[in-house]
Specification:
heterotetramer; A: alpha/beta; Arc Repressor Mutant, subunit A; Dna Topoisomerase Vi A Subunit, Chain: A, domain 2; 13 helices; 17 strands; 40% helix; globular; B: alpha+beta; Heat Shock Protein 90; Helicase, Ruva Protein, domain 3; Ribosomal Protein S5, domain 2; 4 domains; eight-stranded mixed sheet; seven-stranded mixed sheet; 39% helix
């Protein structure tokens, strides 16, 4: 069980402050309200210096005496009180679905529920995160467990010492909450971190003991990496000063995964500070790899309309304006095809382990 | 030039010569009865079911027309009887309390096509062409060989006449089989009995539906209907006043075609062009006639029959450039907004009713008026069902050929989405709604002699759409008002509902007193609701919903009203 | 009984009496021309554009009918001219090489409605009702006041006559304005010129489309067409033979109604019931007549005019129970499968053509025949477009009112999915396909006088569907055959393609010699292909695709054929 | 790297035999063919004694000289040779997607590929499994990594000793291949195995150290458990003689997960021998729990049409014919609602750990 540490006490104070503000307004006979930073595209900007997507300063007052806001106002306070009472006080964590169930009940004297669907509570949780400036993990909420990790390093997880060099074929399952009070790094021999998009390639690299030979940490996020994986990467880069390399499919989705790891996402811009890794490097697949590594043409897949539109959008993003990135994306569009990590196996089952990655890292052939 | 363009071929001259003369021998005149006997589907006798309906319709139309001309409130009895031992032989009997028909006229009225009082004048009536009832007799003759039976009496001191007759199709003349004076308990009125091959079936396109709709459009008439199963239904009159009497009218100059105009010049009794324009047209004063002649640069004093073709054309061209009043309103006899609304309310249970009678307009020289009654929020409406359309022309319901009718087109063409009603492309709107549209004119342009659909004249469709749009705006205003009412109700309880939850959460987070907080919040909620009512009032001012309904013939049915409790006083009436 | 059911009210007797007699004074006879002048939309003169088409159509129909009766291969010239200085005044001129019209007949043929040679007989022709061309003249009179101009000559030794005339609508009689003998280069033929208010526009429902389709249905005729812009198009005849001459026929006993039957009994010249049945109906032999009388239990020797109503009804009821031959085939003149296919092929470029002429059948005592020609795989077809439907009745294209035509209904009702063609509920099938359907009959039951749609008789729709289904089956057979050809080609190379892969895999797994394995597999592949061709042949036998097409009038266009290289010999013809 | 052990040699021999048979037929000028047991419903039956869904004896000959089979015949041999050469010979494992890429190439002299889509190769792999009687894992093919495990036990994974008592909040990520040559069990103190449907509930139980208090192994499969999780359960039950309890949502999908774990699935009936756990017990949620544990009514979710149809199907399955199961399913249908694991949190965040499961196990209130 997690101990109610300093962090939890700080979070509890933030929630209390929120309510204090509301009570104060009521006493002054003012329409009580909660200021909620706006999470829309309009309030998001890319900071080219920090190389991060960050949330701006715009806020909206969610007041009680407003027909269109009353219900949401009530829900925000309800969730705040449940987090404090049920989670922070007991030191337990739970899922957002669980929190929805915990706070759902009938509003007295009506046949209306406080929440009708989880769709209603999820955005209010995000509102609460930004309103009190506390990450979801600080509110003791976890997302689904996804991803695994092995490598030249030992960690301590809730007091258990785990040697990531001796995790067999399975690896350590990365939890959703990886804050320093729960997870600590020990005996680090790794020189870099390699984040792989797909678990099949991770398994190949683990089987080939790539991390042993190249002294690295090897982790995957089963597609778009979940919060735990991103936060862990960010912590390793910041606390251990390790470079992070991202190894994804050559398609717009792969570019997007890389960009979220690197500068954060638009709709979760408020997490960038803790999640984003501006120094992350893209080691492929690149749209130039097919020629460079002489892959046969029948391993390519035609771009569909959605791919093409998505790629064209990416071309306009501020964080993809560097010449190499423009060349990379334009080359994909010109060729009209995408390429999966599995395509490398066409050369040899261990081609990625033995040739592709060593060459990319040695020749510093990454995109930044 | 044709010779060079076409391949040369020796024509078989001799053969041709003979043939032209042979052909000539075969040429013959065709009687109009022969024509319609062969083409009887043109008159609505396509099949046994429709034939039964058409017989009833023609007889009822005649009864109502006769009663109205004589200013008698009509009482019409319709009886359908299946001949015992048969499956398809019906006797149709229609009896009225009208003025009766004088003995000498009976044979020609019932036994001759294209004979009647209504064709040669411009006056709003149900029958128009002098075909209807005689055609029913002809159909009877064709399918059963039986004569028509007619009883008629014109007054207390007159005897009642009984006549049996058949139409002689090769000459289009009546063939009298029997005539006698009989005892009849009716003081005045007419009864006709026709035996035909028919088919009776309830539901859509049935005699039942026809009579229900006839009752809507004729709220001053009482109908008694006995169906072949012996069930009797009575449609009692809802209004005790006569409709305004329609008047005969001269053609209006707008829309008269050149050829017709030239013929009228030849046929007129007027001695000058100016006099002709004044006497043979409606709404032409001497100054209007003078202005027409001035624009045409033709002398107003010319003898009409001497006006040369070129001059006639100039005058004809001048007419549309001169402002001429619309035909007088009082020639037509619209049902009227209040009466049409009452009629619809009796047949259709709904939340909201409204009716619009447009001022008269003109097509091809004929005045006409369009009326629309609309019922919205019809009870027990199957979801996604299309709107129900009731079509009327001169108070007669139109059941067949909805697809080719101008009324349908006008409803289809209206952009219902503007009125908050959903509509797929090219389809009728989908809503719990019934629309009754009445087209009244001194001459209804039907698409066929069976009088089932109004022809597509731009001027007509435009008026129909204007009426429909007005009704549509009112529906929208009503729907908006209803939504607003619902919103207001909700706002009032909204804050109170959540006060306890908010107080609980705050108490848990801050340790303040829960009861104190609730008291404060309740006080504020009362304030806030008042504030919001003010805001809502402002909002409503911008929304002109109520403005739209003000002064219109509109009826809103309270949600839990029992039909019997309803007093049928439309909210407000137009002058 | 009515008295008790209705509210008592003192009737205004005196008023009524006066009124019944007043009403009687207003009754008048209506001339048929007056009727149609007022209702001219019934004749196809709804608006200027349609009026232009209707004028051309009526004149061309008359020309073709006249040529055919005289056994002359028709050459028809149509000229449209816009009068200078106007926007809507057109002169329509139609000139033919027909037999001409004798002088005395000209006024009545062109200047009287319901006059002609075609109404009083049962014989397949374009015109039927004796209205068409006179109605065009009436429209001209109404809109421009101008008379019709007619030139006609009946042979080399005869003079050419020139006539100007107008119809007198109040009496329905021709009004001769001018008549003279003139010089005319034509040996025989007729030309008519009509000046009307009209509108010329290309595309759908245009005069152009009408003439294109007329050429399809009349491959033995040549048309020259000069449009108002002066562009000349020539449609040359594709066939040099006359169509079979249609014959006049007596009514068939099936479908004759009781009333009509009773009237025929009165009118006949025959002296016995048996003789009447034989002489006044087609396909009734003396033994058939005897059988009818036997079933009816009525004496065959009775004088027809003495047959009582009850007996007449028994005879009428007996007719359907006695087997009577269908009307003779040779009274109709269908276009014929080969000619219809040729006509369609000239207008529509496609991969596959087929034509079906059904044996004649009967509705309401009238023989009729249905023919269908279908083109599949039409070039440059917009995706998802619905099938194109060409409708014909007695060789005349029907352009308007497709929605209410039995031909459309028959195509809609056919389950196209059975023939591999996609079709949404209630919609035409969607395929690169054109369907021409020709309805030929001694009497075409049009839904209106403007002759735009065939009425819905069950017997007619059934025949239409049978013809369409047959054509559908052939399309399906063609599509299947095309798919099969593709499959066969593939099978041949299939095994060879994979031999190397299989040999590689086996060699890797077992260390056998790859080359040896390949040699063996290749030898086996040759054997297997032969075997499969035999199997495929068997399979095709089960698939009756080719069987369906065998002996039918069908044309398959090779994929890369140039239109010019195509020899138009349909694959096979039915006897 | 895995060593090419006895098992791999046996598998290789099976593949060679397949090709030997084909070559023999070619030499005898017979149409060469491979006999493939039919994997359709028609060839599947429930063995009430073994309480497993098993595959029957029906086979279909896939011959080369048959137009509709030629391509599949070629593909079957191609995959067999690739498995032997690329995987068994090198001792490496890979994903079925990877194998698709590895064997995809252009057929000489055509523009046709040996496989056009992965959809084409996946069923052929299943054909090959049944044709040579070797599980996917024996062919060195793995599925996606899903699921995690902790508990009162130590395992050896590819030589690494992993103490499942000291795996922190993340747990050991369960690999797809868990055959005895790779994974061995050591120092087993667990008395039973608890398989949880959802990772959120697993995390709750792990955080509450349920496995420590009750001496069990705790694992989840993130929904429908993958092959690795099912195989691991089967091995623990058979080799360690531990009872298996299954803890799922109360909905037709939960019933189905339980039934697949217990008697195998229809379309993978040939794996039942190694995968199914006929002794597995269902500890809920049950449709009677709402009343039994007094859960509030607003935590239930209405059955949709699909749920209702699915439940009615289950009623007819041979393996759901016992009275308690019929009562269970009929009760769900009667009430018309389903219940998620999260609903238990409505009572208390640790209600499942502290009350629900201990009571169910103590009172033996499971369904069998």
């Amino acid at each position: 069980m997690a101990r109610a540490g300093t962090l939890d006490r700080e979070t509890a104070t933030k929630l209390t402050k929120l309510a204090d503000h509301v009570v104060g307004q009521i006493r002054k006979k003012q329409n009580p309200g909660i200021d909620i930073p706006i999470r829309a595209l309009s309030n998001v900007r890319f900071d080219p210096k920090k190389r991060m997507i960050e949330m701006g300063q715009e806020k909206q007052a969610r007041t009680f005496f407003n027909a269109s806001m009353a219900r949401k106002f009530m829900q925000t306070l309800l969730l705040a009180s449940a987090v404090k009472k049920e989670l922070l006080a007991s030191g337990k964590t739970t899922s957002i679905r669980d929190l929805y169930y915990m706070t759902k009940h009938t509003v007295q004297g009506t046949d209306e529920n406080t929440f009708e669907e989880q769709d209603e509570s999820d955005p209010i949780i995000e509102d609460l995160e930004v309103a009190v400036d506390a990450l979801r993990e600080e509110l003791h909420l976890f997302a689904s467990n996804k991803g695994a990790m092995v490598g030249d390093m030992t960690i301590v997880d809730q007091g258990d010492t785990i040697d990531l060099r001796r995790m067999g074929s399975g690896g350590w399952s990365i939890p959703s909450i990886v804050e320093p009070n729960l997870i600590q790094f020990k005996k680090v021999d790794a020189k870099f971190v390699l984040l792989v998009e797909k678990d099949a390639m991770w398994r190949r690299l683990n089987e080939d003991k790539f991390w042993q030979k190249h002294h690295c940490v090897l982790l995957h996020g089963q597609g778009q990496p979940p919060r735990g994986v991103r936060r862990l990467c960010s912590r390793m880069v910041n606390e251990l000063k390790l470079p992070l390399y991202v190894f994804v499919d050559n398609d717009p989705w792969g570019y997007y995964i890389y960009s979220v790891v690197k500068q954060g996402s638009i709709n979760l811009a408020y997490e960038s500070q803790r999640m984003a890794v501006p120094s992350a490097r893209f080691v492929g697949l690149s749209s130039f790899d097919k020629d460079k590594f002489k892959l046969p043409s029948n391993v390519t897949i035609k771009l569909n309309d959605e791919d093409t539109n998505r790629a064209k959008q990416l071309l306009n993003y501020e964080w993809f304006q560097s010449k190499p990135w423009q060349a990379e994306i334009r080359n994909m569009l010109r060729q009209g095809v995408k390429l999966e990590l599995e395509a490398l196996s066409k050369k040899d089952i261990s081609f990625a382990t033995d040739e592709y990655l060593p060459k990319k890292l040695k020749d510093k052939e990454w995109l930044d | 030039m044709m010779g060079s363009a076409m391949p040369k071929r020796k024509p078989p001259t001799q053969l041709t010569l003979v043939h032209a003369e042979e052909l000539a021998k075969k040429q013959r005149e065709i009687s109009v009865s022969e024509f319609f006997a062969k083409n009887r589907h043109l008159l609505g006798f396509d099949n046994p079911r429709k034939a039964l309906l058409t017989c009833v319709k023609e007889a009822v139309d005649n009864s109502l027309d006769a009663c109205e001309e004589a200013r008698i409130l009509p009482e019409v009895r319709v009886t359908l009887r299946l001949l015992p031992g048969t499956e398809d032989r019906y006797v149709v009997a229609v009896e009225d309390n009208g003025p009766g028909i004088v003995r000498e006229q009976i044979p020609r009225v019932f036994g001759k096509l294209l004979y009647g009082s209504k064709f040669h004048r411009l006056r709003m009536s149900r029958g128009q062409q002098g075909i209807g009832i005689a055609a029913a007799g002809m159909y009877s003759l064709l399918t059963t060989g039986k004569p028509m039976k007619i009883w008629s009496r014109t007054g207390e001191k007159k005897p009642a006449h009984y006549v049996e007759l058949q139409i002689e199709t090769s000459t289009n003349e009546p063939n009298l089989i029997r005539k006698e004076e009989v005892a009849w308990e009716k003081v005045h009125g007419t009864k006709v009995e026709i035996e035909i091959v028919g088919k009776y079936q309830k539901g859509r396109l049935s005699v039942d539906e026809y009579l229900e709709q006839t009752a809507i459009a004729n709220p001053h008439a009482t109908f008694v209907y006995v169906n072949p199963e012996g069930d009797k239904r009575e449609f009692r009159r809802a209004v005790e006043e006569f409709p305004r009497e329609p008047k005969e009218i001269k053609p209006h100059p707008y829309g008269v075609e050149l050829g017709v105009f030239m013929k009228m010049l030849q046929d007129t009794k007027a001695r000058t062009l100016s006099g002709f324009l004044q006497s043979d047209f409606s709404r032409v004063s001497s100054s209007v006639a003078a202005e027409i002649c001035r624009v045409a640069a033709v002398s107003a004093d010319m003898k009409p029959s001497k006006v040369a073709a070129g001059d006639a054309e100039k005058v004809h061209k001048a007419i549309p450039t001169v402002k001429i009043m619309n035909p007088p309103t009082d020639v037509l006899s619209p049902i009227g907004e209040a009466n049409l609304l009452k009629g619809l309310h009796q047949q259709v249970q709904a939340e909201f009713y409204t009716a619009v009678t447009r001022p008269p307009s003109v097509y091809r020289g004929n005045p006409f008026a369009v009326e629309v009654a609309l019922a919205y929020g019809v009870k027990d409406w199957p979801p996604d069902d299309l709107v129900r359309v009731l079509r009327f022309a001169n108070r007669v319901p139109l059941l067949y050929q909805a697809g080719s009718c101008a009324i349908t087109e006008a409803i289809l063409d209206t952009k219902w989405k503007n009125y908050g009603v959903s509509q797929s492309k090219g389809a009728l709107p989908a809503a719990p709604m019934a629309i009754a549209l009445h087209f009244a004119s001194v001459w209804v342009p039907f698409t066929s002699e069976s009088k089932e659909a109004v022809a597509h004249y731009d001027a007509i469709i435009k008026e129909m759409k204007l009426a429909i749009q007005e009704a549509g705006r009112r529906v929208y205003a009503y729907v908006r008002r209803r939504q607003r009412d619902a919103r207001q109700l909700e706002r009032r309880s909204l804050f109170e509902r959540y006060i306890e939850e908010v107080a609980d959460a705050c108490a848990l987070l801050t340790k303040v007193d829960r009861q104190d907080l609730m008291k404060r919040l309740q006080a504020m909620a009362e304030q806030a609701t008042k504030l919001h009512e003010r805001e809502a009032a402002k909002e409503e001012k911008n929304d002109n919903g109520d403005e739209v309904l003000k002064g219109t013939t509109t009826l809103v049915v309270p949600e839990n009203a029992q039909p019997a409790q309803l007093e049928l006083k439309p909210a407000a009436q137009k002058a």
